[in-house]
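Translate sequence into structure tokens.
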Amino acid sequence: MTAQHFSIFLMIVTIVAVIVFITLFFIPAPYGRHAKKGWGPLVPGRIGWILMEAPASLLFFFYFITGDRITEPIMIIFLIIWQSHYLHRAFLYPFSLKKAASMPFSIILFGIMFNVINTYIQGQWLFHFAPLENYQGAWFTDIRFIMGVLLFYCGYVINKHADYVLTNLRKPGETGYKIPRGGLYQFISCPNYFGEILTWTGWALATWSLAGAVFAIWTIANLAPRAISNHRWYRDQFPDYPQNRKALIPFIL
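Result follows.
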């Protein structure tokens, strides 16, 4: 793929993200509390998570070692940042779940497709198309890189803490849903999604690239509608749900 074709591909992927964003306001992705029949056979949750997320870790590493920038310090740092998220998401997070809800195979397939495409975009940009002069030694002290990494790991911590709260919400033997509390759950219904949006906005800033921006756009397109759907679901299910709690952004949305 040439650089020109790559740019066209990014535009197409961005347009699809906008379509997905609009669609998800009308048809919530059918997993978790929004699970519905008719989306294919169910797959055990842990297996589903691994199948969906492993390509992002494995393919990014493949693009790194098969590129010609394997000795560039900034590329090694980008590899470490990326893998700090996806190694956890693919190979640790699934086993932290006390009870991983089964997923429709179609959702797993969509997740695999997204991760394959998105990892191709990020890997091709960093390890093939990006002008190396943009990422020379001075980039380590550039405010965009510094703020991007800080935002990435701020979102990372928020996301992981929110997941921890959800994982430990039920006591042994309990089933069903409960109102999560503590941390940013005091202010929003979906701090896990808020954290992930911050994470990939930080990635876009640290890489200062259209490729990174496309990932951030896709993250918002996928998670913002779901956060609103989850927030509405909580309010419908729990009469005592905190009225001042927002869906996704504290005090705003």
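Note: The longest strand covers residues 42-43.
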